[in-house]
Write a structure and sequence with these properties.
This protein folds into 2 domains: about 1-90, Barwin-like endoglucanases, CATH 2.40.40; about 115-185, 2-Layer Sandwich (Alpha-Beta Plaits), CATH 3.30.70.1070. About 20% of the residues lie in helices and about 35% in strands. It contains 3 helices and 11 strands. The protein has helices at about 70-75, 125-135, 165-175; strands at about 1-5, 25-30, 35-40, 50-55, 65-70, 80-85, 85-90, 115-120, 140-150, 150-160, 185. A 7-stranded mixed beta sheet has the order 6-1-5-2-4-3-7, covered by helices on one side. Strands 9-10-8-11 form a 4-stranded antiparallel beta sheet. The longest helix has 13 residues, at about 125-135.
Amino acid sequence: MASWYGHPFHGRLTANGERYDMNKLSCAHKTLPIGTIIRVQNRANGRHLHLRINDRGPYVRGRIIDCSREAAAELGFLEDGLAPVRIDVVKRGTGQTLQYREPPGKMGSPEGYEYTLQLGAFNDPGLARSMAVRLRREGERPRIEEAWVKGQRFFRVRVGGYPSKASAAAAAALLYGRGHDVYIALME
């Protein structure tokens, strides 16, 4: 499955250091080298195009790429948000391996960080606490943040603070590899 992303990432740095432009053709992939050109075919309607990987993601189980808004429009899934796709490597990129360095300051504090990782959002605070306990057993330092969305109260389980999307993506890849669904979120 493919998804697409736009605001609030439009204009922010991608994993390769470019500014993300949701109105241009690009995509994010979890593991293929940055700079790789892939042929993406929407299996629902047969539309296809070539995209260059310039970012990391999506960190949601079952999704293979995150397309720019323009790519989703051209592939015909802008309205639906998701589409079954086939991807083929056209030209393998030579992008660098992601590396994560601990930023200065206190980990888990939002001060000075732009991104965090969200592993769950629950209406029931007990479910959020249960997830936090599991994450602590895995060596993480989770926090539970209360949030109101459209008049509904949620308890978000989040870990870490990262100065860039690339560093957040590297940490998300590790959590995803351990079986967690991970969403890279902007600090609020």
